[in-house]
Design a protein that fits this description.
The chain is 21% helix and 41% strand. It contains 3 helices and 9 strands; from the N terminus they run H-E-E-E-E-H-E-E-H-E-E-E. The longest helix has 14 residues, at 12-25.
């Protein structure tokens, strides 16, 4: 969708439906973490939406991994500045050995790459269950942009 397109204001149910479609279809998400000593850190990662949570992978020794171990509160954003989807939640982390098999298999199936068998340094799986979701298209939808609060969809 182009920012110059005229859009009508969607109701919360439409926003939820569109958000769930995008979470199921898109490949990339921006993950923002922070560390009390090192400050904020933001990276784009591949992700999998399992219907309840976002799954991502990062190097076990990366700044991202270090940050979530110290401060699990994170923010996620789909990469579109007009059709915005922002999620907030707490990251849980799993080693490649401890990750639930269904999640790891689904991640490998989506991307054709399995971090559990990667030859490089070990990977860490991150799982974020959203507590807050905001979604809007353009200025017309700024009011009412919160579509999930305290882990409960509002529509």
């Amino acid at each position: 969708m182009q920012a110059t397109e005229i859009t009508r204001r969607r109701d919360p149910a439409e926003r939820k439906r569109a958000t769930l479609e995008r979470l199921g279809a898109e490949r990339d998400i921006w993950l923002s973490t922070s560390h009390p000593d090192h400050g904020p850190h933001q990276v784009p990662l591949w992700f999998l939406w399992d219907g309840q949570a976002v799954w991502m992978c990062t190097g076990a020794k990366s700044a991202t991994a270090r940050n979530v171990r110290e401060e699990p509160r994170v923010r996620l954003a789909l990469p579109d500045t007009f059709d915005v989807v922002l999620l907030q939640g707490e990251a849980e982390y799993y080693s490649a050995r401890d990750v639930p098999q269904a999640a790891a298999d689904a991640f490998a199936g989506k991307f054709g790459w399995d971090p559990r068998t990667a030859e490089a340094a070990p990977y860490l799986y991150l799982r974020v269950t959203p507590r807050t979701v905001r979604a809007w298209r353009g200025e017309a939808e700024l009011r009412g942009r919160v579509i999930m609060r305290e882990g409960v969809w509002l529509a």
